[in-house]
Amino acid sequence: MQDVIEFIQAEEVRYLDIRFSDIFGAEHALTVPARLLSEETAIEGFAFDGSSIPGFATVDKSDMILVPDPLTAYVDPFREHKTINMQFFVRDPLSQTSYSRDPRSIAQNAQEYLKETGIADTCSIGAEAEFYVFDSVRYSSGVNHSFHHVDSDEGWWRSGEETMMDGSPNRGNQIRINDGYFPVAPYDKTIPVRDDIVYNLEQIGFEIERFHHEVATGGIQEVNYKYSDLLHAGDDMQAFKYIVRNTAEAHGQTATFMPKPLAGDGGSGMHAHQSLWKDGKPLFYDETGYAGLSDMARYYIGGLLKHAPAVLALTNPTVNSYRRLYSGFEAPVNLAYSQSNRSAAIRIPLTGDNPAAKRIEFRAPDPSANPYLAFTAQLMAGIDGIINRIEPGEPVDKDLYELEPEELKDIPRVPHSLEASLDALEKDHEFLTAGNVMSEDFLDAYARLKFDREIQPLRQGPSPKEFELYYNV
GS catalytic domain location, by residue (predicted)? Predict the structure, then answer.
């Protein structure tokens, strides 16, 4: 903490933006003069009303405090006056104990539980959150209407328009459906905003590995950066989303991490690369194992596949998530594992003989997830697999999208809806409450809020597609 305080003084930082996340993954911020941060206030915490945060406390138990994590501090590149953004833990003001519904505390619990098991001391997570950059978006719903409309100058749907969105002539450089992987200008019209996203990420300390346009039309992007431990991988994802959204805004564009914003083209995933380490040594490598995997890695996969229906309630937590999870566009719907095979939910990347690079990639998650909860759920499923030596079965080294029905019938598939995933979570959640990582209270509140705020409202009104299908029946 002292380093941050000295930086604030030396660099004349004006404000401190106190960041924390609700259970859905939305960030909240409270700004205070930076001079108020001291060793004493860091211990005492900053007070706030927990009853005003979705899914947090009731009004009769609303007083809470926020305690800083100095490892997460960075200078905000968008504020006019110099401001440091920092992630905080939510604490009870009387006992100073962690709040059971604080996502960062849950992720910290998972890290501590991993150490307590003796299995490993670090879970490394490298997450690849795809996102769309659109030029405009409009949506509305009411008693007598509902619609959405997104637009992009590179969208294939604009190929027949006379002019571009700025009024200039259409020169015909649109990206075809499912044909947007690694295009160059002038087809890729998102190079300027993507370059600036990467520049801003590097300014706050991200180590960028690669960045490019993804497969779909209409502006889908991917920016890959260096992995971190589970807790700070969650922090990185929150900072990543903040930078992406605000850089797009500065360009007069809009970014979304919605899993499936376009019908008939690819969605946005958040592929999660993960591995376990102990005393600085990687634990997932064995040159004699399938794809170079150790027994531990195989059991980890077994746990993840066994608990996947419940895990998806936290890694794919929106109704829209399941618009992405159907066959086509490389959707990871088959609960199998395979080497270098993107049709399986778990892929083992080809990494050669380097033990430190050996990892697994869970391809089902999407970026609508709260990253702290999503990463925790995956780790906890993997730990359960290791403890109980859960075998994942034989790998499936075939294109699962092309299998005959007779072969495919024995391969489990992901749940078909958020409601189905929440049902699975209700029946299978003991692996999440092990070591008091997640509480029954938290899981009950999470499921109830998901049903009340998302599932139930979408049941109550018609969609435009239903008018197309049924108005004249």
Answer: 103-473
